[in-house]
From TrEMBL:
UniProt-listed PROSITE patterns: CRAL_TRIO (PS50191), GOLD (PS50866)
Molecular function in Gene Ontology: lipid binding
GO biological process: cell division
Protein name as catalogued: Patellin-3
Subcellular location: Cytoplasm; Membrane
Residues annotated as transmembrane: none
Length: 564
């Protein structure tokens, strides 16, 4: 709890303007919140000597030129922002529904005929082959005996001698197309197979041809990301991903599916899921929170490779690069299997790539691994990125993006968002709520440590833009004795912060909770305060922004009952 210091200034002089206070207090009694709740208002007070508009614009330009290593106007910009489509069949256009049905037909045919299985089935064992051959020959001879009863009485002087007993008789199905309708096949009656029939071999009814017996018509079962193809409506979501990746060209989408299934088999995806590849890279790629639309957020922090030992351990030779690639694919596979593939579910991720201190294009080993990963992800993981947000983009990335851009589809590039270091937090907040953004990226999420037990990722954060050369006051009105706790930060700081309690009673004095303190960019990213309220009043949180730049204020609070 913060130290309570009595102020000599009367409460009236410390409060916000009287007309604003009246606006808050003149609420009908029936609309007042419950006693344990509070009311919040925000007011903006210009500083005594604000800079003119022209002066502010000049200062902004000069400051940005000094701080930014890259011209933001040269960052890659997309004219059309990507918007994720619905996976419900009823929401598809007639053309898209027709393409989906055609692709399902091709997939079903491939499953029925085992087209997704590249190697042929193994040959039967010798004993099984002999039994099958004897069964086929017996069937053929019995059928001939039933259809031509007088064959055995005809002379055979004009016919060629029977084949040696050591030769294997040729099935009728293989010689029929080449044999004219004469008496040439009669010598087969004297073969050992015919003798076997005469000795009482059981007659097999003519129900299936030999080819039908050799190739069973069981349907092949194929799983992709743990989902069996064509078993339920989740398959529609998977097929739509391949169709959209190929602009609804059915044959191209089917080819992509076949290639993906073959690649997954060659890469050993099923075994990879349970493989132990270590935890050296857990800070390089990790999942944290959800975006504003419910997509899980994956952070890629390549600045971790500034550690020379980690870089060498990951990229120094082909075997290590392959291990990194397998680790990255394993991480993605495990994340994908937690998604909801039902129509209307969340079946994609939001990817955030932090390029701060990332290995530059001069690092050949890293460049090779990145290029290889890019091809694998684009060819075998279609439509799993709802958005790709690149933050802390350095100057060299312009050349790198120009190099890889021809290998990316227009649909893929429409998902890209780029932000310079000065705009990274602001850009993230467009897609992710501040309470879901890790504290190192400007948010207030510290769920994965014990440093903030009062707040978690589920506690909402209020965002306020503090204009240049203004003072922002957050007023929290208290309706009952309680303990109030709050968390606050200004992205980039360079402001002054103070907190005070103003009681309602006229004979009480203002309590200074936090003296006005200048907060530098290197200070703690967030401040945490609490105050025991013994009488009704209001908490005033004041942010004084003397700079010529807009600032983003984030805060949240909780009210706890006061135990006697």
């Amino acid at each position: 709890m913060a130290d309570e210091t009595q102020s000599t200034v009367p409460p009236a002089t410390e409060a916000v303007p009287s007309d604003q206070a009246a606006a808050v207090l003149d609420i009908p009694e029936k609309e007042l919140p419950p006693p344990t709740l509070v009311s919040v208002t925000e007011s903006e007070v210009p500083l005594k000597s604000p800079a003119s508009k022209e002066e502010e614009e000049v200062v902004v330009v000069e400051t940005l030129e000094k701080r930014k290593p890259i011209d933001e106007s040269k960052l890659p910009q997309n004219l059309v922002s990507f918007k994720e489509e619905s996976n419900r069949v009823a929401d598809l256009s007639d053309f898209e529904q027709k393409a989906l049905q055609e692709l399902k037909y091709l997939v079903q045919d491939a499953l029925n005929n085992h087209k997704f299985t590249s190697p042929p089935p193994p040959p039967p064992l010798p004993k099984e082959a002999a039994k099958m051959e004897e069964k086929e020959t017996s069937t053929q001879e019995v059928q001939k005996t039933q259809e031509i009863p007088a064959v055995s009485t005809e002379p055979t002087s004009d016919t060629p001698p029977p084949p040696p007993a050591t030769e294997t008789p040729i099935p009728e199905s293989e010689i029929t197309p080449q044999t004219p309708l004469t008496h040439e096949p009669k010598p087969e009656e004297d073969t050992p197979a015919m003798a076997a029939v005469d000795e009482g071999v059981e007659t097999v009814p003519k129900q299936q041809t030999p080819s039908e017996e050799e190739v069973p018509k069981t349907e092949e079962e194929i799983f992709i990301w743990g989902i069996p193809l064509l078993k339920d409506d989740r398959s529609d979501v998977i097929l739509l991903k391949f169709l959209r990746a190929r602009d609804f060209k059915v044959k191209d989408a089917f080819t992509m599916i076949k290639n993906t299934i073959q690649w997954r088999k060659d890469f050993g995806i099923d075994a990879l899921l349970d493989e132990d590849l270590g935890d050296d890279l857990e800070k390089v790629v990790f999942m944290h929170g959800f975006d504003r639309e419910g997509h899980p957020v994956c952070f890629n922090v390549y600045g971790e490779f500034q550690n020379k030992e980690l870089y060498s351990k990951t990229f120094s030779d082909e075997a290590k690069r392959m291990k990194f690639l397998r680790w990255r694919i394993q991480f993605l596979e495990r994340s994908i299997r937690k998604l909801d593939f039902s129509p209307g579910g969340i079946s994609s991720l939001l990817q955030v790539t932090d390029l701060k201190n990332s290995p530059g294009p001069g690092k050949r080993d890293h460049r090779l691994a990145t290029k290889q990963a890019l091809h694998l992800l684009q060819d075998n993981y279609p439509e799993f990125a709802a958005k790709q947000v690149f933050i802390n983009v350095p100057w060299w990335y312009l050349a790198f993006y120009t190099m890889i851009s021809p290998f990316l589809t227009q649909r893929t590039k429409s998902k890209f968002v780029f932000a310079s270091p000065s705009k990274s937090a602001e850009t993230l907040f467009k897609y992710i709520s501040p309470e879901q953004v890790p504290v190192q990226y400007g948010g207030l999420s510290v769920d994965y440590c014990d440093c903030n037990p009062e707040f978690s990722i589920v506690d909402p954060v209020t965002e306020v833009t503090v204009k240049p050369a203004t003072k922002q006051i957050v007023e929290i009105i208290i309706y009952e004795k309680c303990i109030i706790v709050w968390e606050l930060r200004v992205v980039g700081w360079e402001v002054s912060y103070s907190a005070e309690f103003v009681p309602n009673a006229e004979d009480m004095y203002t309590v200074i909770i936090q003296k006005a303190t200048k907060m530098a960019p290197t200070d703690e990213p967030a401040v945490y305060n609490s105050f025991k309220v013994g009488e009704l009043g209001k908490i005033l949180l004041t942010i004084d922004n003397p700079t010529s730049k807009k600032k983003k204020l984030l805060y949240r609070f909780k009210v706890k009952p006061l135990c006697d």
